[in-house]
Amino acid sequence: MWSQRQLLWHGLVLFSYIAISQADVFVVDQKPNDFITHGLTNITNNETSPNILDPITDALDPDWLTSINYTRWMMGLEDAISKGDTNLWAQTINKTFDLPRVIEEIKTSTESKATCFACKFIVNLGRSMVKSNKNDQEILNLFGQLCTILKIQTERVCAGTMALIGVDVLEAVKKSDMSSAQICSFLRGDVCLNGYDERHDWKINISKQNHTPTHPTTPPPENVPVIRILQISDTHFDPYYEQGANADCGESLCCRATDGEPKSKEAEAGKWGDYRKCDAPLRLIENALKHISETHKDLDYIYWTGDLPPHDVWNQTREENLLNLRLSAALMDKYFKGIPIFPSVGNHESAPCDSFAPPGSPARKNMSWLYDELDKEWSRWLPSSTSETIRKGAFYSVLIKTGFRLLSVNGNYCNQNNYFLLWNSTDPVDELAWLERELAAAEANGEKVHIIGHIPPGVPDCLKVWSKNYYEIISRYEAIVMAQFFGHTHFDEFQVFYDTKSFKRPVGVGYVSPSLTPWENVNPAYRIYYVDGDHPKTSRAIIDHETWKMNLDEANRNDNPVWYKAYSAKRAYNMSSLLPKDWDNLISRMNTDKYLFETFHSIERNTVYHNLYGFLEEETSFQQTVLNLGYGGLHFLAEGEEFLANQLKDKTPKFGEEYDFIVVGAGSAGATIASRLSETKNVKVLLIEAGGYENLIMDIPVIVNYLQFSNDINWKYQTEPSESYCRGLRDRKCNWPRGKVMGGSSVLNYMIATRGNPLDYDKWAEMGNEGWSYAEVFKYFQKLESMQIPELRDDEKMHNVDGPMRISYPPYHTPLAESFIKAGLEMGYPTIDYNANQNVGFSYIQATIMNGTRFSTNMGYLQFPNKRQNLFLSMFSHVNKVLIDSKTKRALGVEFTKSNRTIRVRARKEVILSAGAINSPQILMLSGIGPVKHLEEMNINVVQDLPVGENLMDHIAYGGLIFLVDQPVSIATRDLMNPMNPYLNDFLIKKVGPLTVPGACEALAFIDVDNPNKLDAYPNMELLFTGASIVSDYALRYTVGYSDEPWNKMFAPIFGNYSWMIFPMLMQPKSRGKILLRSQEPMAKPRIIANYYDDPEDVRISIKGIRAAIEVSKTKSMQKFNSRIHDVLVPGCEDHEYDSDDYWECALRTFTFTIYHYSGTCKMAPENDPTGVVNPRLQVKGIKGLRVADASIMPSIITGHTNIPTIMIGEKVADMIKEYWKKKLNA
């Protein structure tokens, strides 16, 4: 690629500006005009205007530049270096001249006249240094020091560049007799037009014809035979790539053991490669070649267009580059046995990079060391007739088959970074003359021709004079040159060649393939061409091409590289054929069609998406789609049958039957407790569940919202009406779903797995709850966990890999989620493992998911067919009350209703209520345990006066923060369920794709809105990111419960738009609600008084959370998709100024959104604390043989999502129960 220019030319440019900034060095004998005088005065006075360099560049001539006192400048500089005081000097330069902008111009080939001036200055400076009797090493040392001082690169890169490349540059400039203006005009092209040199304006002889045939204007007929050609380019294999190495080392190549320790987890190199300045590891290349050989078994030929070594251009040797060549050739031969491969040479194959010395160069620069080896390695595919030209200049001609010829050119003799061309640029090694002769012979023989090479002609790297001659050749032989194939840029591009007379008629096309290396910020890719095949009138024209890619981010996250067809040219660009005129027409259409231009730009740079997978897919026929879905459906049903076969069997207990332990509720805690207690073989455990079996339909992550419609699996609670919250919801009530199914709410929830913050549990301990500090509960978090995320599995200190609950990232993330994580980095937040005591930062959600489907506690703890004979299950059993002896105050058992029968069962040891933060307090109060006044109001005999139902807590958020985007990068139900899209079948067959995202929840951030820059803070806000919004699916209107008027005013106008949301979720609410009975009737739903926003502090922090979420939307990462807030005024809040605190408070109270984390209603507290219901051993105070173990016992709500902490509570209480009865039996 452009590594030499990036490393060396930056230094040259900076040299020129360094000189100018030293005001006292200008001793001007000639002043060409007053404008120059004015310009130099401004520079001297440190008042440079932004445009001053352009007039200077136009006016300054080489003679004037040579009159600068370089000796004085060098003495001052050397003095600063010797004193070690260069900071002020460097700051002055950077302040006076916008050096970063200039460097960026050079990197992106958008050079201005300032670059030209820099070039001229540096050439004169170098020659002045030579005249001052400085030797080469002294000059290079000075360059290296400046490179380091100005932080162009690290010290070792600067030193290596000067030692390896600077020698050639100096030698080339010293030997050339060209003026500085001529040298710069030659090297920098159009930005330096005032240095004409006729020696570099040469032409080759091209044979003429009276009537030159033109390129075919009609495409090949339909259904002709095709030849399939693979193009692989820019592999850049790095033998020193190391997983986990520093990928952010600040050099032009990272991800090596020598790059220092990574500063964070995010800075570590991925297993399969890295988007930063890292080249391809061997495993990536082998995976690509293996995939290609297994997927494309019908390949006819391979075009291999160069650049094999890595980008460590400051540190290369000939020996290493030759080893790279041999290994790369051996790999190609290994995976593509019997398939003809046609290579071309890249600019990185030489050492130093870009240095391809022409004949007449010093003997030490003779290219035979490389060309002879190329001939040797390529000979396994090429005939011996190619050897002569390969050894001469690494180009060759080969007849692929009768009438079809391939020409491979060496573009390095057009490379402007090949400084040896200053000595002789006139068709070095006679390559273009050879190309013309070969084409003339092919024309005479009636052959069609493909041309391959590495550097595309016409790009900034290619000398203008070489490109001009190449264009003339292509224009002359347009009738037989059917296609050209290049690499080098790493991007997916094309070139249209026009006739050199009118420059209007398209005569040829150059296809520029994307790279296999991910350096820098590209996904690995390759291309397949479909070429007019063998038939009497074949043209060998390109019929179509398709590009395949691998999402490197997903590959590293899942340790599973997946290659996919990104697009086909005809379909993506809506082209009838791929003739030159069609590509010319595409350019014209892109001028007026914004969407089409975005399509091209997305394909070229991988930034715009056409669907959730990023790019256009080939259309599948309706019949094939039906067959695919049919197969996928049968596959899914078979899995469902297997799943049901492994469930615990339902058993109806006999009236009065005895068990050692009775566990009420088979949810997150209950399933855990029943499973752990039944590990003791000599105990008999009964698990009572009000609902029925879980099934695989419930376990499709994306449809979690739809589960709330079911009366069979959802208790469908609602809060009492309120004027203070939920005002925009139907009847001013919040919907409170709760799981009524095996697995409980772990089957209805959004699967987000968070432990909470260590300070949460330390706070519990500080309240007097012994045994509940983070250090004491940590082992239970580990015990329950089976970490499946590859990069976290190795953290044995924080994670476990063999617990019952599988935790992983969802297999798919939308592009928006990826941008959300990057937005955090922009805002100064790290990407964290929030389950490893990393308090503040952004992260993809860790979820209770396995193989793309929900993993509930039912699956984790209760799937052991025929292995647990002492565990009994009674489903569809509604517990009415706990049976308590009012005299001894001992729990005797429970009463429940099943199939309209009332059944009583007895507990020899204990009853454990794990019915959740709503049902557990309801059952206690129905059993006579609760606030005496309330129980008396309900005419219930009081057994024990306890504050049951008090201390109700929940996490709440604003539910109206929608951000619209222009591209289909968010999850929309209509897209997912459209059978013509691949998503549904991808899930049914492979369990991948967007259906694996839990209710569109993809990522989150924990922050402290009061201390946003404090990374060790105790977070008071979670920003929950969803790759969809409430207008993405009509069902969401009803599951949340939006009332008609606000919905129609605010959301209906944008329904169906691609969008995303952030729910700014209050982590530490101060407001407290309560649960009350509605009647004595066990089937009656309790009264839920949430009291949201009762405390003003909750409002204040929530408003700050809203503003933090809006700031995320403004980052560059989110603006990539033109994210913009839907800022229609919230109905009922129109009287408040938009974005004022009063407005947002009104909005919070209108669209109050719960994330279903109800907790605290059977509060744990020490025996002497009157606010508690259970003691730290979770025993109900004053009642023997009765415990509560679920989220209701939390004295304060945790920071995060409550499912994993609830399972932890189940694990811990199971151990406490076992320990208690073991001691009791021993006694």
Automatic annotation (TrEMBL):
Q: Which GO terms describe its molecular function?
A: flavin adenine dinucleotide binding; hydrolase activity, acting on glycosyl bonds; metal ion binding; oxidoreductase activity, acting on CH-OH group of donors; sphingomyelin phosphodiesterase activity
Q: Which GO terms describe its biological process?
A: lipid metabolic process
Which family is this sequence assigned to?
Belongs to the GMC oxidoreductase family. Belongs to the acid sphingomyelinase family.
Q: Quote the InterPro entries the UniProt record gives.
A: ASMase/PPN1_MPP (IPR041805), Calcineurin-like_PHP (IPR004843), FAD/NAD-bd_sf (IPR036188), GMC_OxRdtase (IPR012132), GMC_OxRdtase_N (IPR000172), GMC_OxRtase_C (IPR007867), Metallo-depent_PP-like (IPR029052), SapB_1 (IPR007856)
Q: Which GO terms describe its cellular component?
A: extracellular region
Gene3D superfamilies attached here? 3.60.21.10, FAD/NAD(P)-binding domain, Glucose Oxidase, domain 3, Saposin-like
**Protein name, as recorded:** Saposin B-type domain-containing protein
